[in-house]
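Schema walkthrough. Field components (list of strings):
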Amino acid sequence: MKIRSTHIAYGFLLACLLAIAPSLRAEENLKAEALLVWGTDDAQSPDTKFIAVDESLSKKLLKSPYRWKHFFVVNRQSLNIPAGGSRKGVVLSKDCSLDVAYLGEDRMEIKLIGKGKLVSTHKESLAGQCVFIIGGASENDTAWFVVIRKSATIVASSQSK
Amino acid sequence: MNKNENQLELKLQAYLDGELPTAELAALEELLSSHTELRLLLEELRLTSIALKGNELDLKVPETRDFYWSKIARQIETGSRRQETVYQSVSGNLWVSWIRRHLLGLTGTGFAFCLALLIMTPPKQVAMKESEMELASDDMASYTYNDQQQQVKMVWLYDRNSTESQAKDSSMMDSENEQ
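Field assembly_structure (string):
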């Protein structure tokens, strides 16, 4: 078979597509949200401003080994971070804030800061619909949870309602 | 010039061109050594040959009338055949041949698009990549709970001194889920 100029052109197009495809994916921003959730056995919200978590998240928390019966959203912050970028000082409460960096390919670094001091550093993947939660015990047999989830997960959870 | 002289002259010419048979070569050379006229004739032939070689004219054979017109007819025929091929490929009457001609390229492009889409599409399954965690204080400790089905990963942080007994409580932590 003779090699025509059209074949060379198509070959060039193929090479270009293969070359730009990974970079196109890497350019996507991380669109996620961070939530501070209060876990308690009381059905009544400790504050009228605190609303119950959505069904999808509630299901995940109820199935976890930390079995509180009710979960309320204390605060919610949207995250939109480019690959290689970061957002510092995502305030969730007076004592709790986050430094979030997007490492690319769904991986992120989260620094949990409590009362102005670094508590822990986590590197996690939010691939697919994975939800990452950091939790700890609080007063009066209650608990706090910092939930990080991608926007796609939020959409999926609202559709499942 | 009689017949013998003519034959001798032909032999001299053959000798000059190096085409004389070896059997006759010795006899001719003997004749040349004994006859001055023959030597002069050989010299004259050599000079004539040299003169002709250096002054050959480029002669163009004139085309005959028939050949000239047949050449034009062939050119017209070739031109009309080429025009017909171009017309057929453009007019869409032979889409099949056009597709066949470009099939390789189309296949390549299709393959490229599929591959690019495959690379750009995020994986549907949750890839629980290796995680890293660093606690700022030695007094802190953690449990990690990982549920592939629910697609949730939870890290439980606690103070070693104040909540050690609480962490051991089965109501707080299922031991089988500890990691």
